[in-house]
Amino acid sequence: MKNYIFLFFFLVFSFSSQAEEKILYLDVNILLSKSEAGIYINNELQKINKKNIEEFKKAEKSIKSEEEKLLKQKNILKEEEFNNKLNNLRDKYKSYQEMKNNKNNDLKKLRDNAGNQILKILNEILAEYSAKNKVSLIIEKKNVIIGKTDLDITNNILEILNEKIKKVELK
Known about the structure:
The chain is mainly alpha-helical. The chain has one domain. It has five helices and two strands. The protein has helices spanning 2-14, 28-34, 36-72, 79-132, 154-164, and strands at residues 23-26, 137-140. The longest helix has 54 residues, at 79-132. The chain is rod-shaped.
C-alpha cells in the first residue's frame, strides 16, 4: 500500500503541468537612442544646446570684456564709482548664472518630457506584444545578469516603435 501511495505522489508531482512562463528582456536605452523618434529628439536637443552654448559664450565674453575694462579704469575712477561698477558687474554675472541654470533646466525638462512620451507609447507596445505573444514578464536588460540572446526582443520592439511613432514634439 505504501508503494502505491508513493508511486501516486511521484507520478502526480513529476508530471506537473507543462505550462511554461515566458520571460523576455529588452534594452530601453537602445530603444530611446536608436528609434526614429529618439534620434529626432536627440538632434533637436543638440540644436537647442548649441544655440544655448553660443548665447552663453556671448554673455561670458561681454562680462569678461567689461571686467577687463573696469580693471583698466581702477586707478582712474573714484573708489565709490569703481565699487558701483563692480557691483553692477557682479549683478550681471549673477543674472548670467541664473539664465544659464534656467536654460539648462529647461533643456533637461524637454528631454525628460520627450523621453516620457516615448516610454508611454513603448509601454502600450509592450502590453500589446506581451498579450499577443503570451509573455509573462518583460524586464529591462540592465537588470539581467545573463540570458539567452534569443530572449532579447529589443530589435522587434524597435521595429514596432519605429512604425508607430516617427517623431515626438518637444514641449
